[in-house]
Amino acid sequence: MASPEQTKTRAGFVALIGAPNAGKSTLLNSLVGSKVSIVSRKVQTTRVLVRGIAIEGPSQIIFVDTPGIFKPKRRLDRAMVTSAWGGASDADVVALLLDARKGIDEEAEAILAKLPEVKRPKILILNKIDLIERSRLLALAAAVNERDSFADTFMISALKGDGLDKLKTHLAEQMPEGPWLYPEDQISDAPLRMLAAEITREKIYERLHEELPYQSTVETDQWQQRPDGSIRIEQTVFVERDSQRKIVLGKGGQTIKAIGQSARKEIAEIAEAPVHLFLFVKVRENWGDDPERYREMGLEFPRGG
């Protein structure tokens, strides 16, 4: 029989920070065991703090997938970077994720320069270790550890799952004692409406990676539970110019139809119900300067140009 000490529950927050495309969203989805964060080849796809919830023994670990930290150029960029550092300073553990192949590039350098300002326990995670020789990996680990005081270093492949069990066990042990903050079966604190919009946005990026600029967003306008148990969802894809609207629609509406089919299938898996998805594409010029859009994404609207 387990002693009372062994059964004490723990719960806490782990902030995943790193450059765009370091693999944070893939890692989060792997640790949680379900899709809670958008994964895309297009950089800067995570715009808001996405919380994924994992259980490990008596511990509940709430992972915060922060937007990738990069050099902000536009107002939306600045809001995302501010959000990322804010997520780090509020966490019980800060996990810096680096793409081992890229090493300490310009983006990693900028993060490492600012990281000592975050006075929280930190660990280093080197990702994509299957794509780099061991000697280079060890040299990189040593170089990064010289830059800040990391409690531990983990070498993983988020995509293949290598090293994740050890990482999860370590994080579970670092969580402060206390009651769980979410129900046992909950995997994210993002509303399904928001997750559904993020899934559709991911499918747009997958389909139109080269053609569509970064400035597009998706909003869930209607989420209606029908008597037969299915869900009717209406979403609007907002772009900034009519030329972009034509790209998203495609010839005879074929592109938006394919995006809708792909998104519907994935939303149905998460909602655990049949889904009827209706997509509309509208032009909203300069939506990146509209404070209301930022509030809907959970971001603070940065003042100034």
General description of the model:
The protein has helices spanning 24-32, 75-89, 106-114, 134-145, 164-174, 192-207, 242-249, 254-271, 291-296, and strands spanning 10-17, 50-56, 59-65, 93-99, 122-127, 152-155, 217-225, 231-239, 275-283. The chain is of the alpha/beta class and 305 residues long. 34% of the residues lie in helices and 22% in strands. The chain is built from 9 helices and 9 strands. It folds into 2 domains: 10-174, P-loop containing nucleotide triphosphate hydrolases (Rossmann fold); 192-296, K homology (KH) domain (GMP Synthetase, Chain A, domain 3), CATH 3.30.300. A hairpin with a 2-residue loop joins strand 2 (50-56) and strand 3 (59-65).
Identify the notable features of this structure and list them briefly:
34% helix; 9 strands; Rossmann fold; three-stranded mixed beta sheet; cell inner membrane; six-stranded mixed beta sheet; 2 domains; 305 residues; disordered N terminus; GMP Synthetase, Chain A, domain 3; membrane; alpha/beta; KH_dom-like_a/b
